[in-house]
Amino acid sequence: MNLWTFVEPASLINLAIIIPLVGAFILLLADKQPNIREAITLTTATLLFTVVLSIADNTFNRVDMQTQWLELFPGVGLSFVVEPLGVLFALVASFLWIITTIYAIGYMRGHHEKNQTRFFFCFALAISSVMAICFSGNLITLFVFYEILTLSTYPLVTHAGTNAAKKGGRTYLGVLLSTSIAFLLFAVIGTWAVTGSVDFQAGGIVQDVDNKFILALLLVLFCYGIGKAAIMPFHRWLPAAMVAPTPVSALLHAVAVVKAGVFSILKVVIYIFGFESLKDIPTTDIMLYIGAATVLLSSLIAMTKDNLKARLAYSTVSQLSYIVVGALLASPIAATGAALHIATHAVGKITLFFCAGAIMVASHKKNISEMVGLGRTMPITMAAFAIGAISIIGLPPMAGTWSKWFLTIGALEADKQIIAAVLIVSSLLNIAYLLPIPIKAFFAKSEDGVSSWCRSDVKEAPLPSLIALGITSVGCFALFFYPQPLIELINLIPSISGSLDSGG
């Protein structure tokens, strides 16, 4: 649906980046008027989503959209190009910004958080940089806004201002900046040195590079330089960031930061290396199996965590590597699964974090062991948690079913039976560390046979938070029964087009 037909197609890119940026500074004017401030945030988020919908409509209609802001040096500048993978990420991020804002209104007020204006301001800045990443036309543009995203989210991680928050923020900033400067920057420079280009191009730009050692090194530099993908051992920033308020965790794990990481890896694989070149690179299998190890090890660590947000954090580390594995399989079907997992994991994981925050606001409990019987007093929240958990596991009738299906089929198509086995075992581990939580909440009792929650005055979280987690829960169902639009969008990617029919 094109709601911006009066705007030049290329200008829609500028609007997508500028609208949240302008909204961020306007809401500063309403610092002392929370109702107006939050109305501005919601209006800005909604406007952005309508712009992204128009971009998506143009994409389906094969309308060319590209623009350049400035030329940094001959032939290279800050340029933006619309392509299907970026549109998918932009749709997910812009839609979930609306829902996360609704949730944050209930959470931030219910938890009596300080510095709420700063929170919404930095959130908008982060979304602006995400839009720029989505539509980046070359590696230089991607790198610049990747760094801006890191810097704009740092105040959100340290929002509480406690020693623990500051320590978590130092880890967050330290890991992400060090990996991008030590690895990603050199990957970008190396790509330009051996190809003479940094532009994203269908099929890749390295086909004429004969030096396999250089390509092998570049692949490793990209995979570890994009630290937001949280491949082990550069994953510690993600659990460390759990000191942030839950809406920030939702931003980190579903809307912006981690998805920017795996999106960037997938985009580099498709538009810099290309599937055919990737198959011949010596380090492809090495990074593939490191990704598979991350899937399993982080799932095992998640099982040991009693703190709910810590368990969900390590679950995210695992699920991100599903996307990395899907990219490195160099299979159109696996890449379809990886791209689809950006959306399906987003709605499932954001639901789980919304529930964790609702539990914190209503009961002030963080540990799973303290939540026995909680479903009797917070049935909506725990039912939503069950829905999100089933989606992350990948069971029908939830969204995660399709992305995991494509990933597994892609692994088998690539003759990587071990990877297929890893994905299946990981899903079983998902069951082990996620499903016991709602089961205990609804059916378990304390030692005296009566849940302590039955005797408490604990109620559900504030209404805005319940509305938000209700919407994302419905999203888990919706993407199972109606995944076609996303699959059709993914199928517009030149390297994937024609590899599967639009019905999936």
Automatic annotation (TrEMBL):
Mode of membrane association:
Multi-pass membrane protein
Q: Which UniProt keywords apply?
A: Cell membrane, Membrane, Transmembrane, Transmembrane helix
Question: According to its UniProt record, where is this protein located?
Answer: Cell membrane; Membrane
State which residue ranges cross the membrane: 12-30, 39-56, 76-105, 117-133, 172-193, 213-231, 251-274, 286-304, 316-336, 374-398, 418-443, 463-482
Positions of the NADH-Ubiquinone oxidoreductase (complex I) chain 5 N-terminal domain: 76-120
Listed GO cellular component terms? Answer: plasma membrane
Looking at the record, the residues that make up the NADH:quinone oxidoreductase/Mrp antiporter transmembrane domain are 136-429
Any Pfam family hit: Proton_antipo_N
UniProt signal peptide: none
> Which branch of life, at top level?
Bacteria
Family per similarity comment: Belongs to the CPA3 antiporters (TC 2.A.63) subunit D family.
Q: What is this protein called?
A: Cation:proton antiporter
